[in-house]
Amino acid sequence: MSDHIRARLTSQHNDFILDVDLTLPGRGVTVIYGPSGCGKTTLLRCLAGLQPAHGQVSVNGDCWQHSEPGRPVQQRPVHQRPLGYVFQEASLFPHLTVRGNLTYGYRRVPRGQRRIRFHQAVAWLGLEDLLERRPHQLSGGQRQRVAIARALLTSPRLLLMDEPLSALDRQSKQEILPYLEQLHAELAIPVLYVTHSPDEMARLADHLVLMEQGQIRAQGPLNQILPRLDLPLATEEDAGVIIPAVIREIDPRWHLCRAEFAGGSLWVRDHPGQSLVGQSIRLRVLARDVSIALAAHPDQSIQNLLPATVRQLATEAHPAMTLVRLDLGPTPILARLTSRSAHRLELSPEQPVWVQVKSVAIVE
Questions:
Q1: Phi-psi bin for 341: left (phi > 0), alpha (psi -120 to 50), beta?
Q2: How far apart are CA 107 and CA 362, in angstroms?
Q3: 237 CB contacts (<8 Å, ≥6 apart)?
Q4: Contact at 8 Å (CB) between 145 and 183?
Q5: Which of 78, 95, 151, 240 is deepest in the core (most CB within 10 A)?
Q6: Contact 354, 308 (CB under 8 A)
Q7: What is the distance between the alpha carbons of residues 65 and 54, in angstroms, rounded to a whole number?
Q8: pTM above the 0.85 mark?
Q9: Would you write out the chain's pLDDT as a tens digit for each of its 364 residues?
């Protein structure tokens, strides 16, 4: 079986044209990212069959749609595509309890085809104490957790999530994100997750698709796309990288933990009761929190000092600032400097330097 999602689609609605060519992993979370109006929701609707589109769609070797120029589109109708769809609004049945909403689609899946069990979805989304409540008795975050569990209980082979947190307040978003991370760890099915939130992207994405005006600007693993200086992400205020790491040491006296990654290690503030030796984590390092020195200077307050190699420099939209891509071994990192500082240090590609990381955070 082909372990990927293949989508080559074109669709036009009024003056907007979607024209995409995607090859995505058949497992994990792919975040579809871009500004409002770039076509993220349109892409999901075309994949689901909710909006007419020409082209091909296959999910892990299962063909959902195929068309050739000049011939009618051959496609499965929406109800025959094995997918779950989570919208911005939970849209629960108000007359049913949480249990009733969850079992509504679950009962329609033949017992032998159920890939996700009722108790699994309930546990993953933390719904054990909510099963007898009705939707009006739930918070916004709770309703959305029920909507996600309901989609999972149809045993989909693809889960589409269209900005599922956009209608929630900040507290509700913080409440639900750990459950989405739990799904990230547990699910064997691919998830396409639409968002324009950098925080959601940083916490959830394995693979990243950047959209712009109905087309794909870039696609690839998260840690390969974020460091690219030719993409608009590098110009954002919160430009930076996500580094997969493993906690190797705890310093209880100073409440720090040392996180090791391919190319070095970083000290980061610990999280009592959560930071454990051997635990896999994600580190987020923003370009504005990285400075560069030509030699190691241990007699200063910054503890995270690592050897690196300059790979690329790019002047930002305002000429006063320069963005530098560096490599910590095989791991890329970004630094945002004044152009004056970059000139004074005479930075150039392949130059060995030292990076000073002023702040680093565990993504949570």
A1: alpha
A2: 40
A3: 288
A4: no
A5: 240
A6: yes
A7: 9
A8: yes
A9: 468 999 999 999 889 999 999 999 999 999 999 989 999 999 999 999 999 999 999 999 999 998 766 666 678 889 889 999 999 888 899 999 999 999 998 988 888 888 889 999 999 999 999 999 999 999 999 999 999 999 999 999 999 999 999 888 888 888 888 888 888 888 889 999 999 888 899 999 999 999 999 999 999 999 999 999 999 998 888 999 999 999 999 999 999 999 999 999 999 998 766 668 899 999 999 999 999 999 998 888 898 999 999 999 999 888 999 999 999 999 999 999 999 999 999 999 999 999 999 999 888 6
- Single-letter code of the amino acid located at 133: R
CA 60 from chain center: how many Å?
Answer: 20
**DSSP three-state, residue 193:** strand
Strand partners for 86: 161
The token pair at 235 is 């110009």
Q: Which two tokens stand for residue 79?
A: 């109800």
